[in-house]
């Protein structure tokens, strides 16, 4: 590690004691992320050159180290993105994120928003989005996975562009916020499916609460109203604006009656964006035509391999029962051919000791912690996507 420096000189350059450097060199103590960065700066190398990162076990900090970025540098780059500004990302928040500690802020609990951060980090670190997502799930195993969006870059139709052009600025803001609230609600329904919670029919949840007919001091504001308030366009003209969009066939406005805990029985105004309205908003705001919320899922072939390993838990699958290219995509310590990215690290080869622990009797393939988390989180999606894969006997508990 010393790179030609004496231990004392290196310690002075890194702002540490000589004893600390000795303990790190001998492997008697693990250096913190900050200390690794200080040592790397003192020696004149990248942080990742001082640590041993096993393929398929990368954490968020490992990915940052691999490109030689400090927390401050990474935070500065993230802050230039829309996701970074939305989440108020700083070196402190990135540090907490990498340590698996709670990050303060309402939007940090929104998988759609953190999914955008995953995409930004992937771009900064120069790795596939799924690598950042997997590293996130390793680092923060007790949280819901971020909802990464992969857009279909198909272009808008002429009719959609014409519909957007016909709107005034206020109407455009309203339509855009209604579309974004619809998208966030769709993501919430997707997350409910992952958690095996009941999901209402789309015809029901796509009717978004716009307003409650009562004094705001009693009824409060709906989420959509809060969005419009932040844009500075929520005022007595709301009804006229929404009905103007309805006359153009861009939204549908309905009403129902609910029992409010404070105001009692109140009329609720609902708004639902139509296909035409969604197309117009996407065209005007340069949004993708379609969103894929499942870019992190495996191919049908790899899912079938993962199911075989999962079904053999906890004993594991004999090593000779699994071979070929799948290991380069799933196994810890493997890398895809041609210098591609490391495998996802969903399975690992584990030594099985003979009775008495005298020697290794055999090796078996077992799920890693991330592999268990992946199966438990996404098994329902896989079952719908790949119905031909036999999941009989599959173990889906993330605690096994």
What does this structure look like?
The longest helix has 26 residues, at 169-194. A three-stranded antiparallel sheet has the order 2-4-3. It has a three-stranded antiparallel sheet with strand order 6-8-7. 31% of the residues are buried. Helix content is 47%, strand content 12%. It is built from 19 helices and eight strands. It is of the alpha+beta class. The chain has helices at 7-14, 18-25, 33-43, 60-66, 71-78, 82-87, 91-99, 111-125, 129-139, 158-165, 169-194, 202-205, 216-219, 223-230, 238-247, 275-285, 300-311, 326-330, 369-385, and strands spanning 150-152, 208-212, 251-260, 264-273, 290-292, 317-318, 347-353, 360-367. It folds into four domains: 1-52, 434 Repressor (Amino-terminal Domain), CATH 1.10.260.40; 53-150, no CATH class; 158-291, no CATH class; 300-385, no CATH class. Helix 5 crosses helix 7 (91-99).
Which short descriptors sum up this protein?
47% helix; 19 helices; single chain; three-stranded antiparallel beta sheet; alpha+beta; 400 residues; 434 Repressor (Amino-terminal Domain); 12% strand; globular
Summarize the structure.
The protein is α+β, with helices and mostly antiparallel strands and 400 residues long. It has helices spanning 7-14, 18-25, 33-43, 60-66, 71-78, 82-87, 91-99, 111-125, 129-139, 158-165, 169-194, 202-205, 216-219, 223-230, 238-247, 275-285, 300-311, 326-330, 369-385; strands at 150-152, 208-212, 251-260, 264-273, 290-292, 317-318, 347-353, 360-367.
């Amino acid at each position: 590690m010393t790179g030609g420096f004496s231990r004392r000189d290196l310690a002075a350059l890194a702002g540490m004691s000589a004893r600390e450097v000795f303990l790190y060199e001998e492997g008697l103590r693990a250096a913190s992320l900050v200390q690794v960065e200080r040592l790397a700066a003192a020696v004149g190398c990248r942080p990742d050159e001082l640590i041993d990162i096993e393929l398929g076990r990368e954490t968020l900090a490992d990915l940052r180290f691999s490109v030689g970025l400090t927390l401050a540098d990474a935070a500065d780059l993230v802050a230039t993105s829309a996701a970074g500004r939305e989440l108020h990302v700083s070196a402190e928040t990135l540090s907490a994120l990498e340590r698996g500690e709670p990050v303060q802020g309402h939007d940090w609990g929104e998988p759609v928003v953190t999914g955008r951060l995953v995409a930004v980090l992937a771009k900064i670190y120069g790795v596939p989005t799924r690598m950042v997502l997997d590293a996130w799930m390793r680092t923060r195993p007790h949280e819901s996975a971020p909802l990464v969006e992969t857009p279909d870059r198909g272009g808008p139709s002429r009719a959609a562009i014409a519909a957007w052009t016909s709107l005034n600025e206020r109407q455009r803001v309203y339509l855009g916020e209604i579309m974004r609230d619809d998208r966030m609600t769709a993501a919430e329904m997707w997350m409910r499916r992952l958690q095996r919670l009941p999901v209402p029919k789309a015809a029901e949840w796509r009717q978004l609460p716009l307003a409650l007919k009562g004094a705001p001091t009693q009824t409060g504001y709906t989420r959509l109203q809060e969005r419009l308030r932040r844009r500075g366009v929520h005022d007595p003209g709301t009804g006229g604006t929404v009905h103007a969009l309805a006359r153009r066939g861009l939204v549908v406005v309905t009403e129902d009656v609910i029992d409010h805990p404070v105001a009692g029985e109140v009329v609720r105004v609902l708004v639902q964006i139509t296909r035409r309205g969604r197309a117009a908003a996407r065209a005007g705001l340069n949004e993708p035509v379609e969103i894929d919320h499942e870019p992190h899922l495996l191919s049908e072939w790899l899912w079938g391999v993962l199911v075989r390993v999962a079904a053999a838990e906890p004993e594991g699958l004999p090593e000779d029962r699994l071979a070929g290219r799948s290991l380069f995509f799933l196994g810890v310590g493997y890398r895809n051919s041609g210098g591609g990215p490391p495998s996802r690290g969903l399975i690992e080869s584990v030594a099985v000791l003979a009775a008495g622990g005298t020697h290794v009797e055999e090796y078996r393939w077992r799920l890693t912690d991330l592999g268990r988390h992946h199966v438990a989180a996404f098994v329902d999606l896989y079952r719908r996507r790949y119905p031909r894969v036999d999941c009989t006997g599959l173990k889906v508990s993330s605690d096994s």
